């Protein structure tokens, strides 16, 4: 397209990029939803299992408020063999 203004010719071009059509986008969204649904149970299992590990237990004990009897924490760690004498 050429536009003339005051005798000077200016050339402009319009670039048009086609995006995915709605049906394709809709199919992609459905695929993502299906993947999330299938993987969510695996993720939940990993999260639940991680809470059972010794390292997770130690972290939870460290960030939890101390019980009224502070020996409880020591005894718990001793029973798992984590206290060195």
Q: What would a concise description of this structure say?
A:
The chain has helices at residues 22-50, 54-63, 71-79; strands spanning 2-5, 8-11. By secondary structure, it is mainly alpha-helical.
Descriptive notes:
It is a single chain. By secondary structure, this protein is mainly alpha-helical. The protein is built from three helices and two strands. It has helices spanning 22-50, 54-63, 71-79; strands at 2-5, 8-11. A two-stranded antiparallel sheet has the order 1-2. Strand 1 and strand 2 form a beta hairpin. The radius of gyration is 31 Å and the shape is elongated. The N and C termini lie far apart (86 Å). The mean pLDDT is 66.
How are the strands ordered across the major sheet? Answer: 1-2
Estimate the strand proportion.
Answer: 5-15%
**Rg for CA atoms:** 31 Å
The description of the largest β-sheet is: 2 strands, antiparallel
| Mean pLDDT rating | 66
First-to-last CA distance: 86 Å
Quickly count the helices: 3
Number of strands: 2
Shape: elongated
Catalogue the unreliable spans: none
Fraction in helix: 55-70%
List SSEs in N-to-C order: EEHHH
Structural class label = mainly alpha
């Amino acid at each position: 397209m050429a536009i003339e203004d005051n005798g000077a010719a200016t050339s402009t071009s319009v670039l048009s990029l086609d995006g995915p059509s709605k049906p394709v986008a809709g199919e992609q969204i459905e695929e993502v939803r299906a993947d999330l649904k299938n993987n969510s149970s695996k993720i939940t299992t990993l999260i639940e299992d991680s809470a059972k590990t010794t390292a997770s237990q130690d972290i939870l004990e460290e960030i939890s408020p101390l019980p009224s009897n502070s020996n409880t924490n020591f005894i718990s760690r001793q029973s798992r063999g984590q206290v060195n004498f």
